Structure formats: structure tokens, C-alpha cells
Amino acid sequence: MLNLFRAEYYKLWKNKSFYICALIGAGLTLLLYSTLFLVDNLEKAETQQGQGGVTITAKVQEDTASPEGADITAETGNPQETGGSAETMPMSQRIGIMGVIEQMMSGSFACFIISIFVCIFVIGEYGNGAIKNVVGKGHSRKAVFLTKLLTVELAALLLNLMIVGACLLFGAILLGKDGIQSIHWADLAAFTGIQLAFSAALVSIVTWIGELTRSLAAGISLSLALVMFSTSLTAGLDLVFHDLNWKPSSYWLLDLQTTPLADVCQGDFIIRAAVISLAWFLAAALAGTLHFQKSDIK
Amino acid sequence: MEYVLKTTGLTKQYGRHTVVDHVDMHVGKGDIYGFIGKNGAGKTTFMRMVAGLVSPAEGSMELFGSTALEKQRLRVGSLIEQPGLYGKMTARENLEVVRRSLGITERHAVDDMLEFVRLSDTGKKKVKNFSMGMKQRLGIAIALFCSPDFLILDEPINGLDPAGIKEIRDLLLRLNQERQMTILISSHILGELSKIATRYGIIKDGALIEEFDAKELELRCQRCLKLIVDNAERAAAILEEKCHITNYDVPQDGVIRIFDGLDRSWAVNRELIQQGVKLKESYLAGQDLEGYFMDLLGNGSAAPLEAPQKNRRGIYTFGGKHA
Q1: pLDDT for the residue B305
Q2: Interface of A with B (CB under 8 A)
Q3: By the 8 A CB rule, do A149 and A86 touch?
Q4: What is the DSSP letter of B119?
Q5: Which domains does chain B have, with CATH numbers?
Q6: Closest to A134 (Cβ–Cβ): which among B54, B71, B101?
Q7: Confidence class of residue A71 from pLDDT cuts 50, 70 and 90?
Q8: Is A138 in contact with B81 (Cβ distance < 8 A)?
Q9: How far is CA B34 from the centre of its chain?
Q10: How far is A166 from chain B (nearest CA, A)?
Q11: How confident is the model at residue B118 (pLDDT cuts 50, 70, 90)?
């Protein structure tokens, strides 16, 4: 199995899709920051043009009953400059680096990129027939499948870390010192760890889908449909089982993945997330191994 | 005899359709086994079962006399249908993947193999830009990695030009003679196959209908005078005594095949008739290898080279001569 892993590892480093997916992840991060700055500029422009509203302050003296005695001032401009609240801070600062990381990891961005890469890497072997070279040499089917799974897990881990790294790097460049100082490192570590666990389970499921379909188009379509629509399905199931007081969505990793950062760092959530991720990981790995052991290779 | 591959009742079904039907194949050590059959006869499925890509529905097989197949498959190299190659990698990188997966520590093994299949000058050229022959050679190189004792090749010369075909043929002969490698090879180019095969197996509709060696095939295809007589024993005695012919055989009752003196067939026929033997048929038989295989597979010209014709008087003739 170690020899197989060496070969898979070599293939991973020689695989252009891996680098392209990493670049797309970094590109999306940059795009997200750009969008935030664009919104900032739009808000600023609106405020300067008065479209953001006019702040009216009225100081009415108690001893003056008539409206004429009131000291009324009106001002426009940047709320920060006029001592505005946190809600009226620029979007980029309100979201911050943590917010961008949350958006990239618990939104669908990272899942999309990783799912596509896993499909290309796993299904490509069937497309070019190279899987025959390995199986025909007497390696056990179980070892072949598990090695492949291990390799894509490694790739997904690297892609996730690259995305977090890109968020931090671009955040530091674009938001400066304030952006870095706003990061709660302990929360970031806990959040990233949990997202990696979710990602590992998702990769296991996508690998199984790839093994099952063995067609690039079908594999990518199914995997993306899973990422995009499975939460809608579980929401529907929640309604169906509402009377039984049972929420299927609380057992589905992609629903848990969208949990806000503030809730993620709770102790009981971490344990539940780890258990559910492990369960999905093992279930998909087992299903994939069993299917690969029995299926014919054409 | 020591068998490298021995299958017993090997069967594969897809749904209700039986693709390989109770095949008992025997590939001896050092054989170049030509596996022949029409498209869809079950050759590739059978080879896939041997290579471990497809699991049989029934039956068993032994590789190198052992039923521990996974272990024995380390001694097997296979190239089934298209070679499994990474198009975006170079030939060297493709072989590097195989080297690592087999745990071969010598890095020069890749260079040696590239040299062996004459692909060492391909440099950084991606495999997707290779010609068919180059891809096929690279596929063979992958199959040959780890010096297998048994090589399974499914249509390895398909799509190759004559020079490429000759190159592969020479390579296989070299492997068989220098490394004593046993080879199971299927091909539709029967003429080519007959140049290298030492043993043949014919598969039809999933069933192995015949197995024979090259000498036997030569004998079966040999040009001869075939006589259908009422009493083969008496006819044989006349041939020896009167015609001084000893190179003949009696493959079945009432049939005599004479391999010598074919230009004097009229004299043989006259002598037999004069001696009172009832000569029912007399004609020159014998085929080229392709024709013989086609006959076996059931869609060839079953007629011999010169089929006997009855003239107006009911006398069998061939080539315009009286029988």
C-alpha cells in the first residue's frame, strides 16, 4: 500500500488540475475581497451623494416650548467621521478576514473546488484506463481504493489550507494591520479544524460517487448537485419529520458546515461535528471499498 | 506439462447473456498462445478475468499452478485493449508512476525500459501527442515492468502500420526466446499471429472450441489429396503397394489424405478404381491459415482450394481433369 501511495503522491504533484484548483481557490478569495471593497466604495459614494440618507440631530431645550427654540443640524458624509456606529462601518471591516474565511470554507466555494478536483483525480483513472495497470498487477482492490482516498484527502487538506492561507495573505495585504488584529486565532484554529473534518467526510463521499459513476460528467454533476441542493433536501425532510421532533439536517455534514462561526466554536458542537464527520467518512469509505472490490473494470 | 495458466469452467455472465462459457484453457510455460475469435466472442472478457479486472461468475483458474491469484499476478503483465496511459504526462513520467507503484527502487529501471521499447528519445513530448505505435509500445513497456513471466496482450498490433507490426512481432519473439516469457495474445491479424504463435485456442460464442499447437495446425492446413473411399484400409494398402505412397494418413474412417505426389493424383485415382475401390470423392484440399480459422469460426470459405465438381457423366473432376 505504501508503494501505491508513493505512485499516487507522484501523480498528485504531476496533476495540473490540482494547481489549477488551488489557483481558482486563491482567485475566488481575491474576488471576495474585491467585492467587499466594491461594496465599500458604493456605500461611500452613496453617502457622499446623500443617497445614504441625511443624519438629522435635534437638540430641543426643555425650557423652550416652541419649535423655533430647537437647535437643528443636518450632516452627511462618512458615518465613521461623524462618529457612526459599528453597523455603519465599511463592509470590508465588518466582515474582516474571519468573515472571508468563514464565507470561503463554510459556504460552497471550497466544497465546489475540492469536489471537482476529487472527481477529476479519481474518475480520470477510469477514463484513461490507468486503473487497469494497478489492479492487473495484483494489488488488492481494497488497497487501491483506500490509497486513492488517502491521496485525495491529502489533496483536499492542502487545498483547504491554501484557501485559508490565501484569505490570510490577501486580508493582511488589503485590510492591513487592523485586519490581522481582528482575528481570534483560537477561534480560527477551531473553525478551520472543524471545516477540515467536514471536508474530509465530503471528499470520502465524492470519491465514492466517482467510483460509482466512473464518468467525469456524471461524477462532477452529482457531486455539485450534492453540494448545492442537499441542504434544501434536508430542509424539506426537517419539515416532513417536524411532528416527530426529528431534524435530519442536524446529521448532515453540509448543514452543519454552514453553522455560523460563533456557534462552531462551542465545545459540544465540536464534538458532534467530529462524530458526524467521522461517521460519514467511514460510511462512504466502506461503501466505496465494497463496491470497488466487487465491480468489474472495463 | 507445466502450465502458466489453467482455467476450469471459467464463465462470465452479464445479466442473462453468457459472454464466456465454461472455458478450459491451458497455456503451457514458454508458449506463445494465439487466442482467436470473432468480435464479441469473449476474448477480451476472458483476458480481463485472467488479469483480475473482472470477476468470473463460475469456474476457477490457476496461475503458475497456484490459486493465490493476487500474489501470482505480480508475475503477470497485461495490455488489454487500449493501454492505460496518462496523456498529460511524458513516457518517462508514466513509467515512473508504474515504477513507484511496484516498489522498484532502481531509478534506472525507467530508462532501461524506455530504451528497450525504443522510446528513450521522446523527451518532454506528452503521451497524448504520441502516435498509435508509440502508445502501444509504451503500453507494452508498462506491462513488461517488473519482468513478468506471463504477458497478456489483447490486440496489441491493432492500428499499427506494417513497420510497427513487425517491430511488435520481433519484440514478442525476443521476449519469448531471450526471457522465456509466456505470452497470451489475441489478434485479428491471423497471418501475423501465425508467425509467432506456438499454440492456438479458438473461442466462439464464449466457448473455447479448440486448442491445438502450431505443428498440428500446419498439418491441418497442409495441401493434400483427399480421398473419400468405401474401404480406407484396402485403399491404403493399394497406395503403398501399387503407387508406392507412404506419406498419407487416415484422419477418419473412409477418408485418406495423401501429402506426396499431388501432381500424379490422376494415377492414384485410376489405380484405386482399377483395384475395385469405390472412390466417392477425390479432390485437392488444403488452406491458408486464415481460411482455416475462418472455417472454424464458421463464416469463412469452407470450400477447400479446389472443390470437386461432378461432370455430366457423374465423374468427379477438379481443375478440369477427370478424377
Answers
A1: 40
A2: 2-4, 6-7, 10-11, 14, 16, 128-140, 294, 296-298
A3: no
A4: -
A5: 3-217 (3.40.50.300), 223-322 (3.30.70)
A6: B101
A7: low
A8: no
A9: 2
A10: 28
A11: confident
Per-residue pLDDT band at A156 (split at 50, 70, 90): very high
**Contact assessment for residue A75 and residue A54, using Cβ atoms and an 8 Å cutoff:** yes
B84 touches chain A (CB under 8 A): yes
For the record, the C-alpha cell of A54 comes out as 441625511
Q: What is residue A185's predicted lDDT score, i.e. its pLDDT?
A: 85
What secondary structure letter does DSSP report for B262? G
What pTM, to 2 d.p., does this model score?
Answer: 0.76
The helix-helix angle for B132-144 and B91-101 (nearest 10°) equals 20
More confident position, B74 or A44 = B74
Ranked by mean pLDDT, which of A285-289, B232-236, B253-257 comes out on top?
Answer: A285-289
Residue A89 pLDDT > 80, yes or no?
A: no
Per the structure block, which three cell numbers stand in for B87? 496523456
Which amino acid type is present at position B316?
Y
- CB-closest option in A10, A16, A132 to B80: A132
Residue A275: its pLDDT value, please? 92
Give the span between the Cα atoms of A90 and A83, in whole angstroms: 13
- pLDDT of residue B45 exceeding 80, the answer is yes
Shortest CA gap A238–chain B (Å): 40
CA distance A236 to A56: 47
* Mutation site, A1, A126, A133, A135, interface B, largest B CB count within 10 A: A133
Q: Does pLDDT of B308 surpass 70?
A: no
Q: Reduce the secondary structure of B263-314 to three states and give it as a string.
A: HHHHHHHHHHHHCCCCEEEEEEECCCHHHHHHHHHCCCCCCCCCCCEECCCC
Chain position carrying cell 462552531: A264
Residue B32 has pLDDT above 80, yes or no: yes
**How far is CA A141 from each of CA A136, B47, B63, B136, rounded to the nearest angstrom?**
10, 18, 18, 26
Q: Reply yes or no on whether the pLDDT at A83 is more than 50.
A: no
- CA dihedral B126→B129→B131→B133, nearest 10 degrees, is 30
Among residues of chain A, what percentage have pLDDT more than 70? 86
Q: How far is CA B57 from CA A138, A169, B14, in A?
A: 19, 57, 9
Residues from chain B that touch A139, judged by Cβ atoms under 8 A, are: 70, 101
